[in-house]
Design brief:
The chain is built from 3 helices and 7 strands; from the N terminus they run H-H-E-E-H-E-E-E-E-E. The two termini are 25 Å apart. The protein has a single domain, classed as Roll (Nuclear Transport Factor 2, Chain: A), CATH 3.10.450.50.
Length: 144
């Protein structure tokens, strides 16, 4: 399945899909402030959902400080691209099927298929981001 060519959302678009696209854009541009501004004060990020090396408690990263630490520890050191292959929206949520490609400094890549579920408040801020993926299904490509 090829990546969707979803247009960048209009600023007045408060949908969950729009929030997900803004999140992807901020991550790919490595814009910490823009990404953090997309969330409500008590929003939770579970990436991946459940217990993991990124979240030993499995409860997610809740609150501004926890999300900022997640950015600094997990997102900032990486070069991340996300190809959305399918996007399904309903109410205040969207589920995006995507392939996430993380490129390391040496050019090697880690590739994993995910389903990311975003929930937004009425003003379009993210209240919950749940990324479903499994380390055991990550694929690695050597540099060159």
């Amino acid at each position: 399945m090829t990546a969707l060519d979803l247009p960048f959302p209009d600023p007045a678009d408060h949908s969950a899909r729009a929030a997900s696209l803004r999140s992807r854009d901020a991550v790919q541009r490595k814009d910490r402030d823009a990404w953090l501004a997309l969330f409500t004060a008590d929003a939770v990020v579970a990436d991946p959902v459940g217990v993991s090396a990124f979240d030993p408690t499995g409860l997610g990263h809740r609150g501004a400080d926890a999300r900022a630490k997640f950015w600094d520890d997990v997102i900032a050191p990486m070069n991340i691209a996300m190809d959305i292959r399918a996007s399904r929206s309903g109410g205040d949520q969207v589920a995006n099927e995507a392939t996430v490609i993380t490129t390391m400094d040496d050019g090697s890549r880690a590739i994993v298929d995910i389903v990311a579920v975003y929930t937004v408040s009425d003003d379009g801020l993210i209240t919950s981001l749940q990324a479903y993926w499994e380390l055991d299904h990550m694929r690695f490509e050597a540099a060159g």
